[in-house]
Amino acid sequence: IMSKNKSSESVKVVVRCRPLSRKEESNGPAGGIVQMDLRLGQVILKNPRAPPSEPQKTFTFDAVYDSSSKQRDLYDESVRPLIDSVLAGFNGTIFAYGQTGTGKTYTMQGLWLDPEKQGVIPNAFDHIFTHISRSQSDKQYLVRASYLEIYLEEIRDLLDPNHGNTRGLELRESPETGVYVQDLTSCVCKSIKEIEEVMNVGNQARAVGATDMNEHSSRSHALFLITVECSQPGPDGRKHIRVGRLNLVDLAGSERQAKTGVQGDRLKEAAKINLSLSALGNVISALADGRSSHVPYRDSKLTRLLQDSLGGNAKTVMVATLGPAPQHYDETLTTLRYANRAKNIQNQPRVNEDPKDALLREFQKEIARLRAQLNHRRFRSKQKKEQVDGEAEEFVKLEEQRLEKENEAIREDQFLLAEEKQKLLGENEKMMGDLRKRQEATEQLTARYKAMESKLLVGGKNIIDHTNEQQKMLEMKRQEIAEQTRREREMQQQMLIQDEEAVELRETFTSLQQEVEAKTKKLKKLYAKLQCTKAEIKDVNDEHVRSRQELEQTQNELTRELKFKYLIIENFIPPEEKNKIMNRLMFDPEEDEWKFKPLVPDESKSSQMKKRPASAVGYKRPISQYARVALSMGTHSRYRAENVMLLELDMTPP
Ligand code: ADP
Ligand code: MG
C-alpha cells in the first residue's frame, strides 16, 4: 500500500439526543435533563438529584444533534465528508454508541420506508451509487458488501444461510489489509436495490437467530462492511486502483449488565456479553491517554476488527446517543464521558492505492482474458466463413438444413453401398455435433463475459440518474450549508478557548478599582471551574470505586467456581489421569482457549505404525486362516456366516 497524504487527524465525535418517548413524557413534568447548544456544539447535563447550586456539566463535541434534528442534517454535516473520503480510497468507520433505546439503530438504519427517516446506512447507499453514476466514464467501480454480527464473542456471517449451524468465523491478520474475518461472505452489488437486498437478508438472519430480538440486538454488535474499489487511468497511462473500506457499526447497548449472582455457564456467558464493549472502553482510554504504550486491541473480537479505525489507518466518526429521561442520568453521563475521551484519539488515515489484493484487478484481468478468447473464436470463424454473432443461430439452422438434405440424398442414392452410406451419414452427424458444441461454447463464453463485465460499474453509465440539474444544484447547496455550519461551529469553539486565554492577557488597568473588578470576575470564573473539576474528580472516583467493586465481586465468584472445580478434580479424578490431561493441554492465544494437543503427532509417529505384525503380511491387517480360505472362495455361501458384513476393504488384499 502506498502512503499518500499521510497526516494525523482525530476521531470525530458527535452526540445525538432522542426525543422523550410517550411513556417518559407521561412519567411527569420533569422534562429532559439534556440541553444542547447547537451553535457551539455543547451538551449541558442537569443532575436531577443535585441541589440547584451545583454547577451543570458541560461537554463540547464536533457537533450535537437535539431531539428535533433530522436524519438528513446529521448525514450531510457529519457523515457525508466521511463517505466522500471512502470513495476517494480511505478507510472509514462510523459507530453508534449508547445505552439501549437511545437511538443507535434509529441513527444507523432508521425507518427504511420513510425517506425522511432513513438513517446513515441507506443514505450512504444512495450517496455511493449516485457518486458512481455521476463520475467520469474513465472510472470503473466494484462495490462489495458484507454483514456480520458479534454475539457472545462469536463472529457470525449474516449473509451465509447456514450461519446458525456453523461455528463462529475466525479473525486473521495480514500485513496488506490488517485484521479481517476469514471466509466472510461478500456480495458484489451493482445498484442501490441490490445492496439494500443484502442488508435485508442480513437483518432477517439476525432476527431469525434471536429468541428475543430486543435483548439480542442490545447484546450484539452489528457490522455492515462496504468495500468500494475504483480504477482510473493515472498520469502514467496505467490504471490505478484505490480501495476504500467502510465499516458501519451498530454497537450493543452500553448499559452495565448485572453480572452478580450468576454461576457456572451463566457466569461465563455474562462475562462474555460485554467483553467486547468493555475492551472497547479500555482501548479508547489507552489511546486517549496517549501515555500508555500498550493498547489492548487483542482483548476482544470487536476491538481487533476496529483496530484500524481506532488509532490506525482510517477516518472515524463516533455517534454517541443519549436519552433525555432523568432516570438514566448516570448512564447518560457515562456515555458523555466516554465520547469525550474518544475525541482525543488520533488516527493516521491514508489512501489505499494499488493494494495487491484488489478484486477489481482480478476482474479486469478475467474480463480481458475472456474478451481475447471471444475475439480469437470470432477470428477463426470468420476464416471458416462462419458467423458467430447475432446470426449465429440462423447460421446453425441453415447448416443443419443443408446437412439434413445431404443425408436425404445419401439415403436415396442407390449407387452407394449400405456400409458407405452409414459412414457418410456418421460423418455428417459428427460435423453437426461439432458445430453445435462450438456454438454452445461460444454462447457460454459470451454469457460469462457479459456477467463479469456487468459487475463492474462504469462512471456515468450503469445507473440512470433521475435527478435533474435543479435537484443536483439543491443538493450542492445543502452540502455547502452543512459545510458552512461546521466551519462556523469550529470558529465559535475556537473563540471560546481564545476568550478564556485573553482574560489573562488584558493586564493593563486604568485604575485600581478596575483591576479589582476584573480580578474578582476572573476569580469567580476560576472558582466555578475549580468546583466543576472537583465534582468531576469525585464522580470519576465514585465510578472507579463502583466498577472495582463489581470486578471484585466477579472475581470472588470466579474464585469460588475455581475452588469447586478443584475440589472435584482432587477428589474424583485419579492423579495419573489428571497428569495425562495436564500434559496434553496447551493454550491457543489466537482463540483465547485451552486446547488438547493431538494424541498422535501428524507425521513423526505414522512411520512407526506402518510396521505390520507378521500375521498380516500381504493383508491389510492380521487375518485368520479360516478367513483366508473364505477370501479365496469369494462369495461362497458356505463361508457367508463368518464375514457377514462383506466390506470391500476387508476383501481386497493390498
Ligand atoms: P437502540 O438501537 O439504541 O437500542 P433504537 O434505535 O431502537 O435504540 O431507538 C429506540 C426507539 O426510539 C425507537 O422506537 C426509535 O424509533 C426511537 N428513536 C430513537 N431516536 C430517535 C430520534 N432521533 N427521533 C425519533 N425517534 C427516535
Ligand atoms: Mg438497536
TrEMBL record:
InterPro entries: Kinesin-like_fam, Kinesin_motor_CS, Kinesin_motor_dom, Kinesin_motor_dom_sf, P-loop_NTPase. Residues 10-345 form the Kinesin motor domain. GO terms for molecular function: ATP binding; microtubule binding; microtubule motor activity. The keyword Zinc-finger does not apply. Keywords: ATP-binding, Coiled coil, Cytoplasm, Cytoskeleton, Microtubule, Motor protein, Nucleotide-binding. Its main location: cytoplasm. This is Kinesin-like protein. GO terms for biological process: cilium assembly; microtubule-based movement; mitotic cell cycle.
